[in-house]
């Protein structure tokens, strides 16, 4: 085990949060019960906000960034895990209140970890990451609501070429739903079609304010954009349908009316991945194991070294990342 190792640490400098590489030792890590050697992490939108300083994600500093990690247990004071176990961690406050995955070694609580699902490698688990696991939470929530797939009406995915969107398109298509992708990047249409999208909606048509009850079009939707887009999507859902809303890439505001809800029985299903209970997480990973096509997973991911973290963070906040980026921790 090396004496010191590289981590990406967010600090407060002149009242502002800034991220930089720093050398840490095991003695610097929190006193949690499981020591993990991290092999891979990833960059989600929230990581982009945290590292670029564009959002105040860390609630205390110094804070090791990275809301996800995948690696191998080195030492454990918990009887839940033994050295050599391959594990995955999504959320639970990493990079907010707890030190995260951008570090060769990290100490975490035993109950935050899940065993690496047998269908995936450590690298693939981070190609999925919080974004992909959230897409699965959204798919499960829509299916539980029960109105997608009852006829051949389409399911809409907004922010489709991003991380949540790409995995959502692939999962829904693999389950046999007709998927329409909303994207602001027409150059991603071939990519989205390869993941299973059969229709496209230009992002701008949803981001401009429309009426409160528009033509009923979507059996359901997965929205990672929020703001005017979410208001328009709600007003285009068929009678009895639902939107699983998880994101704010287009803004955190929501100016809408109650009309779709009280006249069309439309549901707005809120999706949180960070504090989701273990049973929901396990079900989401089962959905991924059963329905995420490995060829799609390969198509939607790329691997970058840890040194690329600052650039990837800028790119994801600017909406320039296609699919998912895995970060090799070394
Ligand atoms: P990505 O950046 O990978 O994807 C976001 C996509 O949204 C972009 O690719 C782009 O898609 C679209 N987009 C970006 N900017 C705008 C804009 N100004 N207006 C409209 N569309 C825009 O991020 P992630 O997939 O990692 O995350 C997506 C969202 O989901 C984020 O807001 C994130 O915070 C949230 N999230 C929430 C979770 C939860 O627990 N609730 C968990 C994970 C993510 P395109 O180019 O195709 O138009």
Profile the largest sheet.
Answer: 7 strands, mixed
The share of residues in helices is 25-40%
Number of helices: 10
Mean pLDDT: 97
Question: Which topology of the largest domain does CATH recognise?
Answer: Quinone Oxidoreductase, Chain A, domain 1
Straight-line distance between termini: 13 Å
> What's the alpha carbon Rg, rounded to whole Å?
20 Å
Low-confidence stretches: none
Beta fraction of the residues?
25-35%
Computed structural class = alpha/beta
- Can you tell me the number of structural domains? 2
CATH architecture of the largest domain: Alpha-Beta Complex
What topology does this entry show?
Elements: E1 4-13, E2 16-25, E3 34-42, H1 45-52, E4 63-64, E5 68-76, E6 86-90, E7 105-108, E8 114-115, H2 122-145, E9 154-157, H3 163-174, E10 179-183, H4 189-195, E11 197-202, H5 203-207, E12 218-223, H6 227-234, E13 237-245, H7 259-264, E14 267-270, H8 278-291, H9 294-300, E15 301-305, H10 309-317, E16 324-328
Parallel strand pairs: 9-10, 9-12, 10-11, 12-13, 13-14, 15-16
Antiparallel strand pairs: 1-2, 1-4, 3-5, 3-7, 3-16, 5-6, 6-8
Helix pairs in contact: 1-10, 2-3, 2-8
The protein binds NADPH dihydro-nicotinamide-adenine-dinucleotide phosphate (NDP).
NADPH dihydro-nicotinamide-adenine-dinucleotide phosphate (NDP) binds next to helix 1, helix 2, helix 3 and helix 5.
Structure at a glance:
The protein has 330 residues and is an alpha/beta fold.
